Every structure is written in C-alpha cells, then in structure tokens.
Amino acid sequence: MTAESLPIGGTAPGTEQTLAVRRFGQPGARPKVYVQAGLHADEPPGMLVAHHMIGLLQAAADAGRIVGEIVVVPMANPIGLSQRLMGGLLGRFDLADGTNFNRGYPALADGVAGAVADRLTGDAAGNAALIRAALLDANAASDATTPAEHLKRLLLGLALDADLVLDLHCENEGAVHLYTLAPLADQVGPLAALLGARALLLASESGGHPFDEACSGPWLDLQARFPGHPIPLACCAVTVELRGEADVSHALAAADADALLAATVLAGAIDGPAPALPSARCAPTNLSDAEFLVAPMPGVLVLHRAVGDDIASGDLVAEVIDPASGTVSPLYARFAGVLFAQESARFVAAGRSVVKIAGTEARRTGRLLGA
C-alpha cells in the first residue's frame, strides 16, 4: 500500500487541508477500481467500511492477489468534517456558499468531444484509453477557486480513469440502496446482490450533476455524439447508500467491506475465484418512479412503516402532527414499492421529504434526487 496526502487548494493563508489517499497495485494497471467515503462528511458508515476495506486490500496485496489498481479515499471531505456549528457537524453543504458537496461537478463531455473527435478509430479499447486521458486533461484544466471546487477537481482526478467507481454514502435512515446510470444496470446487479440492496435506482440523468454521473456520464454522452465509433461505457460509477447515519458498527462495516471486495474481484482487479452471488433482493427501477412523501406542514413526524418494508398503494406510511393545533396530516403511498429511506428527525419542516419509496409508477420529472 502507498499512502498519500494531497493538498486541497484554495484554503486561507496559514491553513492547510489534505486528502488522504491509499493506493494498491501497480499505477496504471487495469482494471482500476476507485472507492471513496464521506463525500457528505456527516455520513460516517462509509468511512468505517473504507477502514475495513483497506485492511482487506492490504491482506490481498500481501498475498500477491492485486492485479489491477485500487485507490481508496477513506475520508473524501476534510472541508465538511471541519464544519461544526454549536457542536453539530454540518458536512453535506459547503457553509461558504451552501453548495452540496455531491452536486455541481464539472461537465467535461463538451471539452473531451472536441479533443477526441478527429482521433477516434474503430478500436474500442484504443478509444477508451484516448477518452480517459482527455477526461483527465479536461478536469485538470477546469476552473477551481474555492476549496470545495479544488476538492471536487482533486476527487475527479483520482476517479475519472477508473473502470469501477464506488461512492459510499448513507441516508438519514435507510436500507441499502444504489444509484447508477440506466445502461449500467446489468453491470451493477451483482454488486446490489452482494450488498443485499433493497433498491437499485436508475436514471440517465438525475439532475444536479453528482459525482457518480460526472464519472460515468461522459461516456454515455460521447456514445451519442459519435455513433460511428465504438465507445464503451468504460466507467461504471455507483452511489452506494449504506443504510442510515446511525448504522455504524464493525459487524455491518465488515460485511459491507467483504461485499465490496467481492465486487472488486468480479471487476478483475483482484485475482481469485468469482464469489457466489446471493439472490437479489430487488429489481432495478427508475429513479423517476420513486415516490417521495413530503411533509405538508411543520410538526412531529410519526412513522408507521420501517425501512425495507414493502408498501402497497394506499398504505398509511407516516403522519405529521401539529402539537399546537392538534392537526394531523396523514401521508399515504400513492404507489406500491419498497420503503428505502426516511427522515431521521422527528420534528420536520413543511416541504421536507420524509419517506422515499422505490416503485414503478410515479413518473417524476426534473431533479430526481429531490422531492
């Protein structure tokens, strides 16, 4: 294992923040797997999973089993981890400007298209190598002024040329679920089975340009721009939601790390027999068909169902109660599906998404990651 500490630019004079990176295998070897945790810095489960995974990767390296390159960033957001207000950690948004740390990544496809248009050939592998290099160049040339922008560019620079990208997150409260691009559903299915995911949510574009889509989206875009040239979807990027914020234990983290290591074996970066896949606990569904139940008024949130429950159309899922007036607002599911996430606060603001159900009928449009 090689340990690096990469400086994050844009910080105030006299201060410094760094990004811890752990590398395994030979730089430039294929396939490359990239894993990061804690991009939303107030989501700790992934950071413990990364800790366990680094131990497993070290054992694999000692046994000479790593044949690709594996990069792990166990704490992807030092900026967010430094943001405390009256004792509370505020790690999802940049306090400097309110930007979500997992939104607003640079869209690189336009610049890359111009750089490779006259150089693409009939060789898919050669095109993939060309595009990877162009993506890294375009990212390195992208504008970055604030520390958060420098961090985003740094993280993309580590991930853009990977074959498999795993971005570890969690919900307030939730069951394991995954987000990825729709054309990658078959590739991600084994990972979903290994993790016991209750939902695999697909979109061609979810809105807001999160990290995973910044990594895998350009390949889909370039395929559409250059239909006469073979361009593979050479980066399979997945957002992995590891239950809820409080679901932090060595038992859970060790099991999740085992599953991610098995996925790395399946990707070909670690030598070994293919792991046996458990039965899938979900079928892929469109993110646009997930139903988000929203609090119609401020009040006490009373949940009637639990994460992982199968929900039928018309089920009472939650209530919001105004303790001053006694008004009770019941929240019913319009469509059937699986309850994959819910709010952890028990007093909620009006307009807050309090329950998320993976279904097949909601037909939402716009920014699909929000209510």
CATH topology of the largest domain: Aminopeptidase
Q: How many angstroms does the end-to-end distance come to?
A: 42 Å
CATH homologous superfamily assignment of the largest domain = Zn peptidases
Q: What overall geometry do the principal axes of the alpha carbons give?
A: globular
Radius of gyration: 21 Å
Number of helical regions: 8
Please provide the ordered H/E string of secondary-structure elements. Answer: EEEHEHEEHHHEEEHEHEHEEEEEEEEE
Q: If classified by CATH, what would the architecture of the largest domain be?
A: 3-Layer(aba) Sandwich
Largest sheet: 9 strands, mixed
* Count of extended strands: 20
Strand content: 25-35%
Question: Helix/strand-derived class?
Answer: alpha+beta
Write out the strand line-up for the largest beta sheet, numbering strands in chain order.
1-2-4-3-7-11-9-10-12
Please characterize this protein's 3D structure.
This protein is an alpha+beta fold and 371 residues long. It has two domains: 2-282, 3-Layer(aba) Sandwich (Aminopeptidase), CATH 3.40.630.10; 285-359, OB fold (Dihydrolipoamide Acetyltransferase, E2P). It is built from eight helices and 20 strands. The strands form four sheets. The chain has a nine-stranded mixed beta sheet, with helices on both faces. Strands 8, 13, 15, 18 and 20 form a five-stranded antiparallel beta sheet that branches. Strand 9 (177-181), helix 6 (185-195) and strand 10 (199-203) form a beta-alpha-beta unit. The termini are far apart.
